[in-house]
Design goal:
The complex is a heterodimer. By secondary structure, chain A is mostly helical. Chain A has 13 helices and no strands. Chain A has two domains: about 80 residues, no CATH class; about 160 residues, no CATH class. In chain A, helix 9 runs antiparallel to helix 10 and helix 10 runs parallel beside helix 12. Chain B is built from six helices and no strands. In chain B, helix 1 runs antiparallel to helix 2 and helix 1 packs across helix 3. The radius of gyration of chain B is 20 Å and the shape is extended. Classes of the chains: A mainly alpha, B mainly alpha. At the A-B interface, helix 2, helix 3, helix 4, helix 5 and helix 6 of A face helix 1, helix 2, helix 3, helix 4 and helix 5 of B.
Chain lengths: ~260, ~140
């Protein structure tokens, strides 16, 4: 009788329930740590950083790319933190959101999408040029990676970029997403991120749904639905613009 | 006896909104010729706001049913923590200086635009300063 193996097996076969317990403990620890900082750093911000540290540990110990869920015992977290329940929970936050606030923020909200995509793309292309890339496919793919880690590989596949360039574009998008999670609560006050309309502009500019959602959750959970609302249009719009208009513009300038 | 089951009505409404929204997002993506969902979650959120408000005003969404939706809303941050623990942080670290620079600079530039666009919004609508205390 292998008790240790049985112990792991119980967690594996009840993965989702295991993740409720595990994430509950992580969150509890995070809020205790927040008390030590006298609440200066919000509990959910600490919880998200702990999550990222656990993801790093999971990735380095296994060499796989699913973060903590790469470790078999924690594979159930992939269900709790996966796309299905994430979207379900994000949608549920709209319950209690005020439709009047959303209507009020029409034009700046739409504008933020385009400015967010264009500015990220230009930043990515400019840096790729500095790093010595000259072919349009690589420039466009790295530019698209700075948009989000989904737009990068979608564009890369469409324009025929090499796989190492696609890997860089994914990494750029992941860095962006993680930075948004960590930095948002720190800069929120100084950039005026305190109102629903500001949150909608912010969601449109940042785009990364996971980064925006986590960053706003750690700033002020009331703002989450507004930021998430615009952010969910970002990746689709990016997939639309990057391999088409932006690629052609890049080709005209550098091709 | 119906009272016992009411939380599921709210959860079912939430699920319904998600399916309609995600389907619309997929359809819009296909229509635009991109292999991605365009705004599916955003559409779902709009439906939930409209339907839930209608249900509360007209009395078909009981308090117990609303609690079913509120529960998932309260699970939001833990789910985000779980999501954070799934990120490919190793790839981000290994992506090298170019990936780091591109990711960081893209965020910095976007942060700069937040107050600019937000100011534009409040110039268009002077009532914007009142939005801070909803819920």
């Amino acid at each position: 009788m292998d008790l240790a193996k049985m112990f792991t097996q119980v967690f594996v076969s009840n993965g989702l329930v295991m993740s409720f317990l595990f994430i509950g403990i992580v969150t509890w620890i995070a809020y205790k740590l927040s008390d030590f900082t006298k609440g200066r750093i919000h509990g959910s911000a600490i919880a998200i950083i702990l999550g990222l540290i656990l993801a790093y540990i999971g990735g380095t110990t296994t060499g796989a790319n699913k973060g903590l869920a790469s470790i078999p015992m924690f594979s159930g977290i992939a269900l709790m933190g996966g796309g299905m329940l994430r979207d379900f929970a994000i949608i549920s936050t709209a319950f209690g959101a005020d439709l009047r606030e959303i209507k009020k923020c029409g034009i700046p909200g739409v504008l933020s999408l385009f400015i967010g995509i264009f500015s990220s793309y230009i930043v990515g292309v400019a840096l790729a040029l500095m790093w010595g890339y000259t072919d349009t496919a690589s420039l466009a793919t790295i530019g698209a990676g700075a948009v989000t880690f989904i737009v990068g590989p979608v564009t890369g596949a469409a324009v025929g970029a090499s796989s190492d360039v696609i890997a860089i574009s994914i990494a750029a998008g992941v860095v962006k997403s993680i930075l948004v999670m960590i930095a948002t609560p720190m800069v929120a006050k100084s950039i005026g991120l305190t109102t629903p309309s500001a949150a909608m502009v912010y969601g449109g500019l940042m785009g990364t749904t996971s980064g925006t959602a986590a960053g706003l959750a750690a700033t002020d959970p009331k703002l989450v639905p507004y930021g998430a609302m615009t952010a969910t249009f970002y990746t689709g719009t990016g997939c639309l613009l990057c391999p088409s208009i932006l690629y052609l513009a890049t080709k005209m300038i550098f091709g | 006896m119906g009272v016992v089951f009411m939380a599921i009505y709210g959860v079912a409404l939430l699920s319904f909104c998600m399916f309609v929204g995600v389907y619309l997002g997929d359809a819009l993506g296909a229509l635009l010729g991109v292999n991605a969902n365009v705004g599916g979650v955003g559409f779902a959120m709009l439906f939930l706001i409209l339907l839930a408000n209608h249900g509360i005003d007209n009395g078909w969404l009981a308090k117990k049913s609303q609690e079913g939706i509120a529960f998932w809303s309260s699970m939001y941050i833990p789910i985000v923590v779980a999501m954070a623990s799934l990120q490919d942080v190793v790839a981000a670290v290994k992506g090298g200086p170019l990936a780091f620079a591109a990711g960081i600079l893209a965020v910095v530039v976007a942060f700069v635009f937040v107050p600019i666009l937000n100011k534009m919004g409040s110039d268009n609508n002077s009532k914007n300063s009142k939005c801070s205390n909803i819920n």
